[in-house]
Specification:
Elements (H helix, E strand, L loop, with lengths): L8 H31 L7 H27 L11 H31 L2 H7 L65 H33 L15
C-alpha cells in the first residue's frame, strides 16, 4: 500500500493541540513563575493561574498518551531527510528528546503538585495542612519563606540556591510540623522536583527552537514541503 505524504488528521490535531498547550505552560512557568522564584523571598502566585498551569499539564499528559496510540495505529509518511546522515540522526535524537522531556517535565510537575498539596487544593478541595505556603500558610499559590535550612540544589542557577549578597533565595525545608517549606522532611522529594521541573522546561525551550529552525530549513531551503506533512489535506496530496 502506498506510503502517505501526510500524517493522519487525528495525529495532526493532537500534534498542534499539544504544541499550543506546551507553549502556554512554558510561558506561565518561565515568564510568570520563574521570575518570582528568582527574586527570592516569600511570594504568592495567583491561585487561578497556578490551577491553569496544573490543568494544562494534566491535559498534555493525557494527550501524549492518546497521541502514542494514534501514532502507532496509523500509517506515517516516509522519514524526512536533510541530505546529511549526521543531521538525520540528530533530528531523530531531537524528536525523541522532545517527546521524552515534555512527558518528563509534566510528570515531575504533577508529582510536585501532589507532594505539596497544590493539586488537591486546586481541584479536590482538600489537601492536608502539612504544607505551609508562605503568607497565609497553606495557600495554594504561596511559596516558602526563606529562612534557616539547607539551600536547594542549584541545577541551573535559577534562584534555587544561595543568592549573591547573602540572600538565601528559594530555600527553607524546615522539617518541624507546621514549619515553612515542603513536606517530606529536610530531604523530601519535593526538595528536588521544582528546580528539576524548571530546568527541564528551559532545556525543552531550546529543543523546540532547534526543531522550529530545522522545519524552516526543510520548508524554505530544501523546499521539500516538510511542514505540510503535519497539516490537513489528502493523505496522498
Amino acid at each position: 500500500m502506498e506510503t502517505p505524504k501526510r500524517y493522519h488528521p487525528v495525529l495532526v490535531t493532537l500534534h498542534w493541540l499539544i504544541v499550543l498547550l506546551v507553549f502556554i505552560n512554558l510561558f506561565l512557568g518561565l515568564f510568570i513563575f520563574e521570575p518570582l522564584l528568582r527574586g527570592g523571598g516569600a511570594f504568592r502566585i495567583p491561585e487561578s493561574t497556578l490551577a491553569i498551569h496544573m490543568a494544562v499539564g494534566i491535559v498534555i499528559l493525557g494527550l501524549i498518551v492518546v497521541r502514542f496510540f494514534v501514532r502507532t495505529g496509523t500509517k506515517k509518511p516516509a522519514a524526512a531527510t536533510s541530505g546529511n546522515k549526521f543531521f538525520d540522526v540528530l533530528a531523530r535524537v531531537v524528536h525523541f528528546a522532545l517527546y521524552f522531556f515534555v512527558f518528563a517535565t509534566t510528570v515531575i510537575g504533577l508529582v510536585f503538585s501532589i507532594q505539596t498539596d497544590r493539586l488537591q487544593r486546586a481541584f479536590l478541595g482538600g489537601g492536608s495542612s502539612r504544607f505551609q505556603g508562605g503568607p497565609g500558610g497553606g495557600n495554594l499559590g504561596g511559596f516558602p519563606t526563606p529562612g534557616p535550612g539547607t539551600p536547594r540544589p542549584s541545577f541551573g542557577g535559577g534562584g534555587f540556591g544561595n543568592q549573591p549578597g547573602g540572600n538565601p533565595g528559594f530555600q527553607g525545608n524546615d522539617p518541624r510540623p507546621g514549619g515553612p517549606g515542603f513536606p517530606g522532611g529536610r530531604f523530601g522529594l519535593s526538595f528536588i522536583l521544582l528546580p528539576l521541573h524548571l530546568d527541564i522546561a528551559i532545556l525543552l525551550l531550546f529543543l523546540i527552537g532547534f526543531h522550529i529552525l530545522a522545519a524552516l530549513y526543510h520548508q524554505f531551503i530544501r523546499k521539500d514541503h516538510l511542514i505540510g506533512r503535519m497539516w490537513y489535506g489528502k493523505a496522498d496530496g
